[in-house]
Each structure stands twice: as structure tokens, then as C-alpha cells.
Amino acid sequence: MQEPQKPAWPARFAANWLRAWSVYTEPRVLVILVLGFSAGVPLALTHSTLNLWLREAGVDIGTIGLFALVGIPYVLKFIWAPAVDALPFPLLTRLFGRRRGWLLGCQLLLVLAITAMGLVDPAAAPLVMAFAALAVTFVSATQDIVIDAFRIESLDETQYAAGMANYVAAYRIALLASGAGTVEIVSALQGAGVSQDWVWSAGYGAMALLIAACMTAVLLAREPEGNAEVQARQAHMSPKERFEDAVIRPFTEFAQKPDWFSLLLFVLLFKLGDALAGTLMGPFALDIGFEKETYTRIANGVGFPMVLAGGFLGGAMMKFLPMTRSLWIAGILQLLSNLAFVVLALAGDDVLVLAGAVAVEQVTGGLGTVVFVAFLSHLCQARDVTATQFALLTALAATGRTVFSAGAGYMVALSGWAVFFSLTALAALPGLLFLAWLQRRGAIESASKAAESGDLKVESGP
């Protein structure tokens, strides 16, 4: 009896890719899509959109510059992340669960804070506006903490990258909605003759309604498994035990991982070259002869769809490849993408070369971000301290990029643009060297196997 023939390789290839892309429509991954939108809306409302409102209201440019400080909670959110792990949100945690309670609480507070912010007259009360914006960023940063923990705990290992790709895509769309969308609402109302006292209130009110709509996804979602057990254990802890469990244990648990210090150095360095290259992109375009309008249109018109494509491509790729190989591909592509700007520096103000360089950089950057965040998620496998560990790891990655990028302008002044971008490609090598070391030691495979087991640890305590 003849064995049935296997489908031809094109059919198998198509079937595999369809299976890979189908992960984006799985219910738990779609919830992360909506949460990404909820996370993205507040950012523009407290930054670019707010700056436009302040300037239109006649606030002086020096004061507008000081409003950048309202973004500090996004940098310092790891400080209160232990509270999200250890404490219940009043009433809502009891009704909806440990993570969903916090999510709904943050979204409800965001609706109120954004609405209140829209009711402030920035010209008459700039200090009140600053505190209102600070309230929005604090709650938004807290929401980010909870979303990261919910994403890690509710998705399995095969969904991490796809979940992050969905998150990034929705986050970018939310930035457009709360940026350009708010401005369009305000402009339309102004054109219709609505009083200037209310147009910005209406724009911010519309964004608050979008956050409220996102609460539907949280209500429909399921609480991640195991959190009821964590809540029961925490309920019997003394204040001292809660403190030790929330603040100290995230460090001691991570330090039990094989080669934990090398893992931290890898987190610090993996996206360094990519971050250095992107630090001075605007000044670079102007220096080589582009008009700011031309650069902005290409950066947004080409960059926006390309970063989304890169994110989705990274998520699909990780359905086929193990974590270590995915990190190698992402790291090498990020290194090579920096060389595209060497070509642009030598070519000068060539629009096609600029579009090509932006496309390459955004695709590889989006892919690299999704793979890297999926890797960080693999490292956070203690359910009761997920929020704290992930907040600390992302803070470490951001700190490395910020500190090392601070001297980028001086590097350009000394070397010129072509040499600078060549050096940013070389700056990607330390991360790849640590990747090789970790691969040889089996540390990444160990973290991946812990995630693949689907058994996030819940037994803990001092």
C-alpha cells in the first residue's frame, strides 16, 4: 500500500506561513492589540498635542519646554512597579482579578484625568495644566506596568512576539489618533465656529472616550491563570513579608538564573547600535541638505508602515525559529541597517536613498524590538513579581541607550556623519558578542525552556 504523498513544498510553505500569521487573530493576542491602543493614546496628549495647544494659547516657549518634565513617570515607573505586584486595586481587584482590576482602574482614572486636563485653560493656569498632565502620565505609566505583566502572564511562549507586534502597531495608531486626530477634531470645531474655550476640551474628551472603549476588551478578557493563587498567598502576608516579596524577591529570583549578570549586560547592549543611529536622525537629514518637510514626510510616510511591517514580520518569524536564532537575525539586521545611513551620508540629499534607508531601518528596528521584548518576556517567569522584573529590565535597556547616546553629537562633530554611522554599526557588536557567549553557555535556551513550559512560578515568599 502506497504512503500518501506529502504536499509539494510551495503548499507546505504557504500552509506554514498562514499558520504563523493566524496567531495575530487569536483572542488573547487581540486583547493585547486593544491594550496597545490604550497605552498609546495618553502619550501625545501630554507631549506633542499638548505643546500645540499651549503654543496656540499663547504660552511662552520657555514654559512649553518645561512641560517635557511631565514625562518623568515613564522613566521612573519601575519605582512603584512593586506596588502593582503586591497590592490590590481597591474594589476592582476583588471584582475582576489581580491584573484586570488594575487595568480597569488605570483606564477609569485615565478617562477622568484626560477629561479634567481638557477642561483646564493653559494660558490662565499653566501650573494647574502641568499637574493635570503629570497625573495623566503617572496613571499612563502605571497602566504600562500592568499591561506588560498582563501580556506576559496571559500569552504563552509562542504568542509573545505576535502579542508585542500587535501592541506596537496599535500603539503607533493611537499616537496618530491622539496627535493628528485630536488636532483635526479641534480644527473642525474651530471651523464650525465653536467657542475657543471648548474646542480643546472636546478634542481631549473624544480621546477619553477612546480609552473608555478600550475597557471593553479588559472586561471580555480572562484573568491570567494562577493569579487567584497569588492573591490568596499575599492575603496572608504581613506588611514586612509583602515588602520583601515585592521589592527584594524580583532581584533574588532573577539572580538564580544561569549567567544572570551576562544576561543583564546583554539587555543593556543589544539595541545600542540601533539607538545610537536613531538619536540624531533629524539633524542628520537637515545637515546633508534635506528640507525638514521632505524628511518628515518620508520619515512618517515610509517609516510608519515599515515599522509595522517589521513588527509583524518578527512575530511571524518567531513562530518558526527558536529564540537564539531570532535574536541573531534581529541583531545582525540592526547592524547592517545602520550601514544604509552611511550610504545616505555619502549620497547626500537623494530622496530615493533616504526613503530606502528609512524603510530598511524601520523594518529591522520593528523586527528587532518585537524579538527583543519577547526575549525580555521569557526572562520574567515569576508570576508574583512579573510587573517589577519587566519594568526593571526595560529601564535597564533604556538607561543604556540614553547614557551611551548622550555623546552622539560630539562623535558627529569629531568624525562626520559617514564615520559616525559606521561606528554605530560597530556599537552593535558588543551585544552580539554577549549573545554568542550566552548561546555557548545555554542561558538563552534555559530561559526559553522555562517560558515554553508555560509554568510561571507562583510559590514565593521570604
From TrEMBL:
Subcellular location: Membrane
GO cellular component, as recorded: membrane
First-listed, main subcellular location of the protein, grouped into a coarse class: membrane
Membrane topology label: Multi-pass membrane protein
Keyword annotations of the record: Membrane, Transmembrane, Transmembrane helix, Transport
Gene3D superfamilies: MFS general substrate transporter like domains
Classification via Pfam families: MFS_1 (PF07690)
GO molecular function terms noted in the UniProt entry: transmembrane transporter activity
Transmembrane segments: 29-49, 61-80, 101-120, 126-147, 168-192, 198-221, 263-286, 298-315, 327-347, 353-378, 390-411, 417-438
Family that this chain belongs to: Belongs to the major facilitator superfamily.
Name of this protein: Major facilitator transporter
Native species: Tepidicaulis marinus
Lineage: Bacteria, Pseudomonadati, Pseudomonadota, Alphaproteobacteria, Hyphomicrobiales
